[in-house]
Write a structure and sequence with these properties.
By secondary structure, this protein is α+β, with helices and mostly antiparallel strands. It is built from five helices and 17 strands. The chain has helices at 3-15, 19-23, 29-42, 64-70, 74-92, and strands spanning 45-46, 52-53, 57-62, 101-106, 114-120, 145-148, 167-172, 178-180, 187-189, 196-197, 208-213, 216-221, 228-230, 233-235, 237-239, 245-248, 251-258. The strands form four sheets. Strands 8-7-17-16-13-14 form a six-stranded antiparallel β-sheet. It has a five-stranded mixed β-sheet with strand order 10-9-11-12-15, with no helix packed on it. Helix 1 (3-15) runs antiparallel to helix 3 and helix 1 (3-15) runs antiparallel to helix 5. The longest helix is centred in the first third of the chain and has 19 residues, at 74-92.
Length: 260
């Protein structure tokens, strides 16, 4: 089980309700988790000797509606997100100057469904993952990126192994419906001509095409009215990685893969 899947299982226990009811139209914690992993990767700094330093302080800024929506779980969520980032950093072989910390902050000017992520290096070398002695203090590493999101909810998706072939699956939040992607085109939409139909008024008749070719899965918006978001970022076309969260209309799907 991957880092994000373990986080999602713990999140299920924390929330205790169908994600679609709790996070519909709002920022979903899984989107924050994806963004934090990306932030750690993008803001890492290569030190002498090939060591890699990652930020250890992450600030997630939310609009008032999203901040209030997460307030009930804010302390536990911050701790779970920090544990998830720590696990990701350990898996990638990065180092930090201190324990990982995730803060949820409020910005009255951010609209619902939009969040920002910033990060920096802070503190003295951590006992377990710090660079070896002799590394001089570094200035903070900062990174900021606006994550436009319009709805929110997500359920862990699952994949199955068939022989030695990689299986690619989308799982729809709420009902937990699993859709195995076929090679070539897989059109998602509200219309009868879609390969995967979503009964969602915010979804266009042919909204997005998830294409499977040679083991690579790519999502492409088909000129939809409300657009397509992957991990909180609006996209026209983008390759997918295991655990990516796709949001179209009010529907949220998670892409998973399994195989050799």
């Amino acid at each position: 089980m991957g880092v994000l899947q373990r986080f999602e299982r713990r999140l299920e226990g924390m929330v205790g309700l169908a994600f679609a009811r709790v996070f519909k139209g709002k920022v979903h914690p899984a989107e924050i988790a994806n963004a934090l992993q990306r932030e750690a990767d993008e803001q890492r700094n290569v030190l002498s000797g090939g060591r890699v330093l990652a930020p250890n302080v992450y600030v997630v800024t939310l609009g008032p509606v999203d901040h209030d929506n997460l307030a009930e779980w804010s302390d536990q969520l911050s701790a779970e997100l920090a544990a998830m980032v720590t696990e990701h950093i350990q898996r990638e072989g990065y180092q930090t100057f201190d324990d990982v910390e995730v803060r949820l902050e409020r910005d009255e000017e951010l609209r619902t469904g939009v969040f920002e992520v910033a990060s920096h290096v802070s503190g003295a070398p951590a006992r377990e993952h710090a660079p070896t002695s002799g590394v001089p203090p570094l200035p903070p590493l900062a990174g900021r990126g606006r994550m436009p999101t319009d709805t929110g909810a997500q359920d862990p998706a699952f994949t199955g192994r068939v022989g030695m072939r990689t299986t690619h699956v989308l799982v729809v939040d709420g009902p937990g419906t699993k859709h195995v992607l076929e090679p070539g085109s897989n059109v998602l939409g509200r219309g009868t001509e879609a390969d995967i139909r979503l009964p969602d008024t915010g979804v266009s008749r042919k909204h997005v095409d998830v294409q499977l070719s040679g083991g690579t899965v790519t999502v492409e918006d088909l000129g939809s009215t409300n657009g397509t978001l992957v991990n909180g970022r609006r996209v026209s076309r983008q390759d997918l990685a295991d655990g990516d969260v796709i949001r179209i209309g009010h529907s949220v799907l998670v892409y998973r893969q399994d195989g050799p």
